[in-house]
Amino acid sequence: MSFLAPWALVIGGLAAAGAVLLHLVARQRPAAYLFPTTRFIPDRRTLVSRVVRRPRDPVLLALRVGLLLSAAAAFARPVLTSSRQPRARVVMLDRSRAVASPAQALAQARSFISEGVSVRMITFDTAATLVPDAAGLDSLAADSRPRAAMGSLTAALVAAERAASSLGATADTIELLVVSPIAAGELDAATDSVRARWPGRITLVRVAARVDSVQDRTLERALDADAPFAPALRRMRVGGLPGAVRVRRGAATGADSAFARAGGIVVAWDTVGAAAERPAALVMGDDVVVAAMGRGMAPDGRTLARWSDGSPAASERLLGAGCVRRVAVGVPLAGDLPLRPAFQRIVRGLVAPCGEVVSTAPADSAAVARLTGTGGPATGRSLAVGLGQRSPLVPWLLGLALACAIAELLLRARMTPERA
Questions:
Q1: Quick one: pLDDT at residue 122?
Q2: What is the dihedral of CA 334, 335, 337, 338, to 10 degrees?
Q3: Helix axes 134-142, 102-110, angle to 10 degrees
Q4: Which of 88, 213, 324, 357 has the fewest beta carbons closer than 10 A?
Q5: Each residue of 25-57: pLDDT tens digit?
């Protein structure tokens, strides 16, 4: 048996010791002697206190000590445990589109399952799921569908804390292993604060990251050689496969909408070749381009790129299984703008898969160091206390304390005032 809050036992023990000491102080009426002059003494009850070797009223004392100790034990939250094992593991397996080879990552996660060590397996992409048994791992191996969702290490860490609560009462230490590329897009503003709640070091097993580049996508048809955005897309394969990219030099049409509903990506560059105005700044993510461009206003939708004043320069509207993107950036037909690396990165971002675009590039060394932490593995006791493990004995101990309190009141009612 172990206690989740042992400090309550200390307080209860001190209170019980105080009750015993008070019972060693016996209070009784002195012996009566007959003297003629006692008629002049006022008639009042006289009590004398003295220390005795054996406490009076042992039944009353036993009830009071039982009340204090049972209440203290209830607040200490005892947990019945079997023989403790030296260690247990929680394995977080990345199943997002950041992983280059899901089969390799799964094989790496399987290698941490060993006899005699309790293991909780958690798979995650945008959400985290606990794998109940080996059959669940077999189903993961059979599932070869491509992953479109990006991973969230924050959600996975929260699930790992919950899974560790059941291991904390039976293991001395708990190892947390993360099988993931640890991509920059899998970290968010809450990751550091959630990571701080894990009281130990985290072992990172980094697998190969998928190269999320323009080569992974396909153009529906070849671009004209004089297209100002052709240099950025020159490495894209050409072929009318499902999910291909259609780039139009003008407004989208009804046929484009049908193409998007079938899973394609339509990029309607409405103002290509427009007359350049004064220099403007185009911002998309961390990329900024300052050049003489024709400036337009993108229609409503999820904003992908903005002008320096915050107005939308490119927007996206989901349509069926695909999307239609409208770009209101006038690219001059002359000049070096299409050859600038920042502009080419913006163009490649505009032909990325539909939905929120996140980076699959590896996280920087500082973020990895914060995620790893220092010290050794987490202790089972720290995780059990921190996650509010339930104690099934608490209701019974509180019932015993209540029974002792009632019995003590009934016994005191039958005793004389001096003894109560």
A1: 92
A2: 50
A3: 160
A4: 213
A5: 655 555 555 665 655 555 555 554 555 567 677
The total of other beta-carbon atoms located within 10 Å of residue 233's CB is: 21
Residues 345, 33: Cα–Cα separation, whole Å: 110
Which of 330, 230, 328, 346 lies closest to 288 in space, CA to CA?
346
Report the candidate in 23, 22, 27, 28 with the shortest Cα–Cα distance to residue 59. Answer: 23
Give the contacts of 364 (CB within 8 A, at least 6 positions apart). 184
* C-alpha atoms less than 13 angstroms from C-alpha of 290 in its C-beta half-sphere: 2
Return the closest-CA partner of residue 198 out of 162, 230, 223, 172.
162
Distance CA 384, CA 120 (A): 15
**DSSP-derived 3-state class of residue 418:** coil
Region label for 175, one of left (φ > 0), alpha (ψ between -120 and 50) or beta (otherwise): beta
338 by Cβ neighbours in 10 Å (0-12 / 13-18 / 19+) ranks as middle
Residue 338 region, left (φ>0) first, then alpha (ψ -120 to 50), else beta? alpha
pTM for this model (two decimals): 0.52
pLDDT tens digit string along 229-254?
788 887 777 876 666 888 888 788 88
Contact 324, 256 (CB under 8 A): yes
- Total residues found in the chain within this entry: 420
The predicted-structure confidence for 300-328, as pLDDT tens digits, reads as follows 888 888 888 888 989 998 888 788 999 98
Structural domains in the chain, CATH included, are: 2-34+46-80+392-413 (no CATH), 85-211+360-386 (3.40.50.410), 214-350 (no CATH)
DSSP H or E run through 341: helix 341-350
Neighbours of 322 (CB within 10 A): 25
> Are 15 and 72 spatial neighbours (Cβ–Cβ below 8 Å)?
yes
